[in-house]
Design goal:
Length: about 475
């Protein structure tokens, strides 16, 4: 039995399929979930400039490093990092643990995605069946709160969503992930174009574009700049093993720098498109531009049902949401499946079922956290474990290895850059990437400084809810309401 069951260099079949895979990595819910409200709140175009710079000078070097490691060793993340340490003679315990942390982060994220996917699937059917008609702010909030408190109903939709992910995960790479990507990514791109066109035809295109793109430096500040770096770092699925796992199937003729830059460009474009659509939608009915569950399942239903053809528009939006979360869940599960497959010697269907043991446990934990079961907010605990511990440890371990420890011969042949390009990459990994990780951790702690009660639960804190405390309303010049 082969010791390395990861597929050979042509596993993706073509550079086009590999490009689709990388594009799907950044087609996540976070581009819709968090970024639009952050852009409008913190300076519009000024925020986007910092966000784009962070993608290019923090995100791209990290993606290049993960892809180079994957192409060099073609193992799961933990074994690739172990192999790198052994090949270079490094006596580092942090690298293997960073690889294990990537796998654990993927497990926890799959649990969170499974709940979000189930809720999105439920709202897709509700929108398609017209159950969101006549939705007001109070009724939309009551509908979502009632659903979130019904553990059995949430678990049912969560199970359906997990079944959709598993239907692809149990198949081999060619018949499963590759075939699905060739269908889902173009479909998702088409739906995004349609949704954006509908949003801009609402008559609020100019106001939405001003709110997003016009640089308002006085609104950026140090917090806004740090927030841009934080969101850019987390938006590329760095440090959770996804890029490294997909890169282990990377075609031999794919360009490392172009692939990494392409990931950053796609992420920025998706952010702009979704931000423009969401901002235009909320301007139509002047509903608050919030973030997270409150934006997607409370604010936007009010907009769709007040528009002509709102039932169809809402259905298309929640279909986009389901596909965004589905790709994220599929790739995080792929990290676990690849790791288990490597240890079982290549039996992927069995490995997928075994991988569902930890992934299923994370899904159950996320379900308890979402529905508010128990005295501790498990949802917040899972989020913070990934954002404050697992991802920063992995990023800093990669930065230390690539920026300081590895001799050039270890990665130079697989990195695809030489001379000044190589020296720039190494300098960025040594200095700017660690700084970006520290900023991301600091902003996460700052965001939670007044809301760590989420970890203690509503019984001990005296309040609950999935979103952070509501801040005072602010009016933007063109009427965008931030909440």
């Amino acid at each position: 039995m082969p010791s390395n069951p990861v597929a050979p260099a042509t596993a993706w079949g073509s550079r086009w399929t590999f490009a689709l895979a990388l594009a799907a990595v950044v087609l996540g819910a976070g581009n819709l979930w968090l970024v639009p409200s952050a852009v409008v709140a913190h300076g519009g175009g000024a925020f986007l400039m910092v966000y784009a710079l962070a993608l290019m000078f923090v995100g791209v070097p990290l993606v290049m490093t993960e892809l180079a490691m994957a192409r060099r060793y073609r193992h799961s993340p933990d074994r690739s990092l172990q192999a790198a340490a052994a090949a270079s003679g490094l006596r580092s315990r942090s690298l293997p643990w960073a690889g294990r942390g990537m796998v654990l982060a993927a497990v926890l994220l799959f649990g969170l995605y499974s709940v979000l996917g189930g809720v999105s699937l439920a709202w897709l059917f509700r929108a398609a069946l017209g159950e969101l008609r006549g939705t007001s702010e109070a009724s939309a909030a009551a509908l979502f709160s009632s659903f979130a408190s019904d553990a059995q109903q949430v678990a049912l939709w969560q199970a359906v969503f997990i079944g959709l992910v598993m239907a692809v995960a149990v198949r081999n790479l060619g018949r499963g992930v590759q075939r699905s990507l060739r269908t889902v990514v173009p479909l998702l791109a088409g739906l995004l174009v349609i949704m954006t066109a509908v949003a801009l035809s609402s008559g609020k295109a100019q106001e939405a574009a001003w709110s997003l793109f016009w640089p308002r430096w006085h609104d950026l500040g140090w917090y806004g700049a740090g927030r841009a770096v934080q969101l850019a770092l987390y938006s590329l699925a760095i440090g959770v093993g996804v890029v490294m796992t997909l890169g282990s199937y990377m075609p031999g003729n794919a360009s490392m720098p172009l692939s990494a830059i392409g990931v950053a460009v796609v992420d920025l474009l998706v952010t702009l498109v979704l931000g423009l659509a969401v901002t235009a939608f909320v301007l139509v009915e002047q509903v608050p531009l919030t973030s997270g569950f409150e934006l997607v399942f409370v604010a936007l239903p009010q907009v769709f049902e007040a528009m002509a053809g709102g039932q169809l528009i809402g259905s298309l939006f929640y279909l986009i949401m389901v596909l965004l979360v589905w790709t994220s869940a599929l790739f995080t599960l792929e990290v676990v499946v690849t790791t288990v497959t490597e240890r079982l010697g290549g039996y992927r269907p069995v490995a997928a079922l075994v991988a569902m043991l930890p992934a299923g446990a994370a899904a159950v934990a996320a379900l308890f956290g979402f529905t508010g079961q128990g005295a501790v907010d498990v949802w917040a605990l899972m989020e913070l474990s990934v954002m404050l511990v697992l991802v920063p440890i992995s990023v800093l371990a990669l930065a230390r290895m690539a920026g300081w420890q590895l001799p050039p011969r270890q990665l130079l042949a697989f990195l695809g850059v030489t001379g000044q390009g190589y020296r720039l990459w190494r300098w960025l990994m040594a200095w700017l990437v660690p700084l970006g990780a520290v900023i991301a951790v600091g902003l996460t702690v700052l965001d939670y400084r007044e809301d760590f009660c989420r970890l203690a639960g509503p019984e001990l804190c005296g309040h609950g809810g999935l979103e952070q405390s509501v801040v005072p309303l602010q009016k933007e010049p063109y009427g965008v309401t931030l909440q």
